[in-house]
């Protein structure tokens, strides 16, 4: 495994022409495009890492996996999926077009921004502090960080440049899809996107999801297997947005990308796993090539 990871990192790290860092959020534009790391955690808690696997970056949309793991446990499946669909769409992550065109105006899935904003609004805790506290706590338990923290400069950068997310949230409110205070919901959404992580920590998140919600490092059951099954299915069908079909065919395992550069892949694959890993990467990566 170590050899395989080292080889992947060696082959992929120089491919900096294959993409660019996200620049629509000013703080993300400062990311080092040369950083590249990969990590794997297996079901027994054994870990391997290569490259810049300890470098901190932000979860961004990978945080949608955490909020989706949290909301149905607190609100029940029906409450969540009455408000958010489970269908794949071939639209970009922040698209507003279909949301307005379709009737009812229900967000299509919890992996796109509109769906994640609805999921955040459904968290039952009172106020921004309690809601983000619950997300941070689950995030730490899923990925075995002692604490998960918001990277303040990224959070502020998101908050003050996020016209599109604000437009989505206010539209959702106008059609009755949001609960609670719209600005509080947005604030929790921006904060959770700005949670700091590393490829190594993400690989534990992936392993916990692959192990039906049991963290293989702590042995703790963090999320119910039924919820995890739903999360994995939505990662498979919608986790890479309009690239999800292509990724499913090429790689064949669930995945969630984020504009911070991470990809989290909870793989239960057995045979053929190594060839999959060769074509992409497995566990988690910090890649200069982001796909929105
Ligand atoms: N915080 C980002 C946004 O809402 C997350 C998007 C992403 O990672 N695809 O624009």
TrEMBL record:
Reaction catalyzed: L-glutamine + H2O = L-glutamate + NH4(+)
GO biological process: glutamate biosynthetic process; L-glutamine catabolic process
Transmembrane segments: none
Residues that coordinate or bind substrate: 61, 113, 158, 165, 189, 241, 259
Keywords for the protein's UniProt record, in alphabetical order: Acetylation, Hydrolase
Molecular function terms from GO: glutaminase activity
Record field: compositional bias (Polar residues): 273-285
EC number: 3.5.1.2
Enzyme class, first EC level, given as a word: hydrolase
Region of interest (Disordered), ranges: 262-292
Assembly with partners or alone: Homotetramer.
Protein family according to the UniProt entry: Belongs to the glutaminase family.
Protein name as catalogued: Glutaminase
Source organism of the structure: Jonquetella anthropi DSM 22815
Gene label: glsA
């Amino acid at each position: 495994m170590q050899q395989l990871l080292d080889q992947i990192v060696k082959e992929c790290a120089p491919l900096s022409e294959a993409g660019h860092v996200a620049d629509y959020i000013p703080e993300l534009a400062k990311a080092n495009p040369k950083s590249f790391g990969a990590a794997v955690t297996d079901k027994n808690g054994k870990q391997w890492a290569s490259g810049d696997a300890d470098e901190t970056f932000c979860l961004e949309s990978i945080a949608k996996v955490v909020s989706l793991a949290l909301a149905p446990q607190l609100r029940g499946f029906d409450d969540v999926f009455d408000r958010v669909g489970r269908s794949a769409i071939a639209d970009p992550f922040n698209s507003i077009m279909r949301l307005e065109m379709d009737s009812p105006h229900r967000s299509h899935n919890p992996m796109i921004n509109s769906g994640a904003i609805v999921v955040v609004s459904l968290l039952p805790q009172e106020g921004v502090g309690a809601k983000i506290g619950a997300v941070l706590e689950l995030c730490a338990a899923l990925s075995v960080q002692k604490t998960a923290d918001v990277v303040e400069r990224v959070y502020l950068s998101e908050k003050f440049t996020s016209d599109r997310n604000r437009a989505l949230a206010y539209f959702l409110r106008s059609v009755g899809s949001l609960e609670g205070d719209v600005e509080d919901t947005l604030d929790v959404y921006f904060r959770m996107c700005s949670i700091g992580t590393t490829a190594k920590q993400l690989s534990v998140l992936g392993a916990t999801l692959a192990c039906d919600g049991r963290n293989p490092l702590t042995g703790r059951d963090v999320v119910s297997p039924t919820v995890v099954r739903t999360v994995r299915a939505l990662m498979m069908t919608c986790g890479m947005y309009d690239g999800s079909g292509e990724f499913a065919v090429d790689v064949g395992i669930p995945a969630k990308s984020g504009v911070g550069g991470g990809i989290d892949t909870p793989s239960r694959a057995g045979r053929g796993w190594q060839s999959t890993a060769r074509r992409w990467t497995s566990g988690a990566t910090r890649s200069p090539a982001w796909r929105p």
